[in-house]
Amino acid sequence: MKNYLKFPLYAAAFALMSVGMASCSDDETPGTNLRDQREAALKLVVADYVDRTVISTYRQLADASIELHTACVAMYEDGVGNVTQAQVEAAGEAWKKAREYWERSEAWLYGPAGDYNVDPHIDSWPLDQGQLDDLLANSSEMAKMDADGVYISSKDYGLLGFHALEYMLFAIEGTGMTQTSVPHATDYTAEELSYIAGVAGDLRNHCIFLEAAWAGEDNIRSTKQDILAQVRSVADFAQNNNSIKSVLTDLANGLCYGDEMKNPSEAGGSDIVNYLSAVQFLVTDGIQNIANEVGNVKIGNPTGMGTGDDFEYDPNYIESPYSLNSINDFKGNIISIENAYMGLQSSKDYNSGETAILPVDHSLSAYVATLDPDLDSRVKAAITKAYEAIGEMREPFVVTCAQGGEYSGVNRAAITACNELNDIFDEVLRLIESQR
User: What InterPro entries does the record point to (predicted)?
Assistant: First the structure.
């Protein structure tokens, strides 16, 4: 198997570790024993994290994206003048469902989501309305559009993904604080319906890429394998999309990111050489990355209150403005942090009825609690604080983000809570790293 996380399989390394653990005696150094115990515990944490949190979330995201594509293709096939309001509403609800699973996956945007540019491809904003108008008016370009989303995939990120579909499926009524999001009118042109189907197909393809890249293509449903086969058969259309070509090639060559993360080895020349480094990656590139982005970029950019290298004041940097889903997006990101740290919490209201994503048996939270129960409690409290602080924010965020406005204090509190959440995971890392 080709090593895409850049660490090969673990058999020899784990055989040595197991022998070492079995032969520990009172004469051995305490540090070595602590390291072995830590590795044994973190092995279980990483396995549950990959199988029960990451892959199961991506599986639901891929399923939801297929539902969304099906709804959009139904509109496209019925054609101009025949699209019903019920169809638009159904597509909008399918968009919200897929969107929720995507936001709940953003605590692990490393790996395939980053390596193959899936994140910017399906979740860049704001939409480039000028380019969209030009595309829809270009008959030669529109003639190349396909409902499987292969041709559109080579276009700029500002024309793709969730926010392009959001723009075509939702509309804003009212002004100021009276704004509401409603289903888009049914008066689509033929070009718009073709565009909707193509973008939905491209989104579906990339969501399936994520599941397949983590689980292995052989381990996804046959219907999803068939979709990937169809994309491969017309992939020559996407001449400029090297990411699609790369991921399809790597999947065919056995890419299974989840297995590689669960089986690290020092022999691979990777930064991830053991379970400690896997968890360091999980925390820094996963949890802390999204905590910082929510606070200092997603909220910080539009409000002008962010800090750090990623912050750039931009009052137009509003995520999900057409569906008025911005704050729900932010909350979903905090849930993704909770799931990465604790596994799915089925007792939480926002997880009510969730059966496809499974609670874990061995969470990072449970391991931290064995070392420092107080720290584990403080991490959980920080997660809750960030979630509730964001919950105090109000839509439409394009209005409430205004500097010096009525909601400035609420917005600042949410940013502060996200930064505190980021910072407390520094303590988590120090604690785990000290077990040596």
Answer: Imelysin-like (IPR018976), Imelysin-like_IrpA (IPR034982), Imelysin_sf (IPR038352)
